[in-house]
Specification:
The complex is a heterodimer. In chain A, 0% of the residues lie in helices and 50% in strands. Chain A is mainly beta. Helices cover 0% and strands 56% of the residues of chain B. Classes of the chains: A mainly beta, B mainly beta. Chains A and B meet through strand 5 and strand 10 of A and strand 5, strand 9 and strand 10 of B.
């Protein structure tokens, strides 16, 4: 089954404790991206990766890091989480052909609470 | 900052009616447009994509695009209670991201 898998799905942590949200896709997609979704603000892009060689910031990258060491994985790293990073996070991927990024396929989401 | 605007709703329609959802965008060079449906607590799910001016139909859904007016819409015919969700309009920006509107909440009453 074609899918984007995120883990953990739910996490409660404390300020300053480093955490990683993993994202893996099995569709051989070139493009991957992280979004956060907050009430009243909608979906906002954190980082994106056009392919394993190109990664860049989105609209709200502060406090986050990513890496793209292999095509299928695109983890989101919070080095020192703060309460304002409490949010619902989505990883998404796209084939990367035609008008990039094209149709995005989303993971199930990771709900993060930072106390 | 490129913007995608949608009425937040809620848009309420009776079962069997046509629901009309609208979206405007600010970037004149955008070439790709998408409608996603998101149920509460779930991830966005792609419903339609449209790239050319005019109408595109898929089952009960019709997407309409007018690039001159920077306007894209989604019509849902014969609305069902299961269509009750938030509908997100998304526009391709500069080949790096999809920019999403904040969504319109649709409620279909039986």
């Amino acid at each position: 089954e074609a899918q984007v898998t995120q883990n953990p799905r739910y996490l409660i942590t404390v300020t300053g404790k480093k955490l990683t949200v993993t994202c893996s896709q099995n569709m051989n997609h070139e493009y991957m991206s992280w979004y956060r979704q907050d009430p009243g603000l909608g979906l906002r892009q954190i980082y994106y990766s056009m392919n394993v060689e190109v990664t860049d910031k989105g609209d709200v990258p502060e406090g986050y890091k990513v890496s793209r060491k292999e095509k299928r994985n695109f983890p989101l790293i919070l080095e020192s989480p703060s309460p304002n990073q409490t949010s619902l996070y989505f990883c998404a991927s796209s084939l990367g052909e035609g008008p990039i990024p094209g149709e995005l396929f989303f993971g199930e989401g990771s709900r993060l609470t930072v106390l | 900052q490129k913007e995608v605007e949608q009425n937040s709703g809620p848009l309420s329609v009776p079962e069997g009616a046509i629901a009309s959802l609208n979206c405007t965008y600010s970037d004149r060079v955008s070439q790709s447009f998408f409608w996603y449906r998101q149920y509460s607590g779930k991830s966005p799910e792609l419903i339609m994509s449209i790239y050319s001016n005019g109408d595109k139909e898929d089952g009960r859904f019709t997407a309409q695009l007018n690039k001159a007016s920077q306007y894209v819409s989604l019509l849902i015919r014969d609305s069902q209670p299961s269509d009750s969700a938030t509908y997100l309009c998304a526009v391709n920006e500069a080949g790096t991201a999809l920019i999403f509107g904040k969504g319109t909440t649709l409620s279909v009453s039986s």
